[in-house]
Amino acid sequence: MIFKILFLFLLANSNAFSNNNPEYIIKKTDDQFREINNYQVDMVISIAIPAFRMPKKKYKVYFKQPDKIKVKSRGFGLLPKTGMFTSPLENFSNLSNIRFSKDLSRTNPNEIMLVGDLVLDSLALDVPNEYARLTFKPTVDVKVDTQNWVITQVLTKIDTVKIMEINNFYDIVDDSFYMPIRSTVEYYVKDARLSKWINKDIGTIMGNNHNMNIESDMVKGLISVNYAKYRVNRGIKDSIFED
After folding, report:
1. How many CB atoms lie within 10 A of CB 183?
2. Are 231 and 36 in contact (CB under 8 A)?
3. How many beta carbons lie within 10 A of that of residue 179, not counting itself?
4. Do residues 162 and 188 lie in contact, with contact meaning Cβ atoms separated by under 8 Å?
5. Taking each helix axis from N to C terminus, what angle separates 22-34 and 2-19, rounded to the nearest 10 degrees?
6. Are 192 and 218 in contact (CB under 8 A)?
7. What is the rounded CA–CA span in Å between residue 119 and residue 100?
8. Burial class of residue 97 (count of CB atoms within 10 Å of its CB; 0-12, 13-18, 19+)
9. Are the C-beta atoms of 172 and 204 separated by less than 8 Å?
10. By three-state DSSP, how is residue 126 classified?
11. Torsion sign (Cα): 6, 9, 11, 17
12. Which of these ranges, 19-23, 50-54, 173-177, has the smallest mean pLDDT?
């Protein structure tokens, strides 16, 4: 009986230690992502930028594991980087020195936050010299729902200044699958090195014929994405992804 109690105690503690390991959190979110073999979804994207207007853009997106994606839309355009179509493992590979947040203000017991240093090479960002590279150190906070093992928020900042925030909102779709129903991507940048990158990022979403013509180094805007008409794990022919 004593050995049985000891075994249960060690098992419980081993699970606790696993939960306190960033690699465990990353693996659980990645495993959850892999459970969705394929899906198609309708997306409506709207962009709100001061002194700039554009109509909502509609997409039909097909996804199949591990990395097949097909986007159908009127005119040219790319999808905003919400992290929906790339695995958590791939997204976390853009971070180094991943650790748990020391922020104790959270009250949700089914929520945990990881913090990592953003790898500049993942931004495809031109850094003029080595000094600039050493002083330009964005960090990323990643909030994980540990009940459903999905990423709900990604906050990129420099020191305490927010430069980009992604929020994903989930619900049950197609009867039984926990998927995003809405995403928001908020930009708030006052840095010449990042504003050019974000201007380009927003421009590609609207289409290559759009010119942002933003003269200021300040970029402030909101991209909203709504997902509807999911068809999950019903099979998608490979021919869909052929050009």
Report:
1. 22
2. no
3. 18
4. yes
5. 80
6. no
7. 18
8. exposed
9. no
10. coil
11. negative
12. 50-54
Asked whether 9 and 190 are in contact (CB, 8 A), the reply is no
Write phi, then psi, for 112 (nearest 5 degrees). Answer: -140, 150
Q: Residue 126: what are its φ and ψ, rounded to 5°? A: -80, 115
- pLDDT tens digits, 157-175: 988 888 889 999 999 999 9
3-state secondary structure of 154: strand
Q: Do the beta carbons of residue 15 and residue 7 sit within 8 Å?
A: no
Give the list of residues 6+ apart from residue 72 with CB closer than 8 angstroms, or none. Answer: 59, 60, 61, 62
Amino acid at 146: T
pLDDT, mean of residues 142-152:
96
How far apart are the C-alpha atoms of 51 and 193, rounded to whole Å?
Answer: 22
In sequence order, what are the residues at sequence separation of 6 or more whose Cβ sits closer than 8 angstroms to the Cβ of residue 236? 38, 39, 40, 62, 63, 64
Q: Give the pair of three-digit tokens for residue 164.
A: 């980009």
> Which one is the CATH code of 2-241: 1.10.150, 3.30.420, 2.50.20, 3.30.450?
2.50.20
Can you tell me the distance from the alpha carbon of 13 to that of 18, in angstroms, rounded to the nearest whole number? 9
Give residue-wise pLDDT tens across range 220-238. 788 899 999 999 999 999 9
What is the length of the chain? 243
Distance CA 142, CA 112 (A): 8
The separation between CA 13 and the C-alpha centre of its own chain, rounded to angstroms, equals 31
* Pairing status of strand 57-64 against strand 68-73: antiparallel
> CA 33 to CA 84: how far, in whole Å?
9
d(CA 28, CA 222): 30
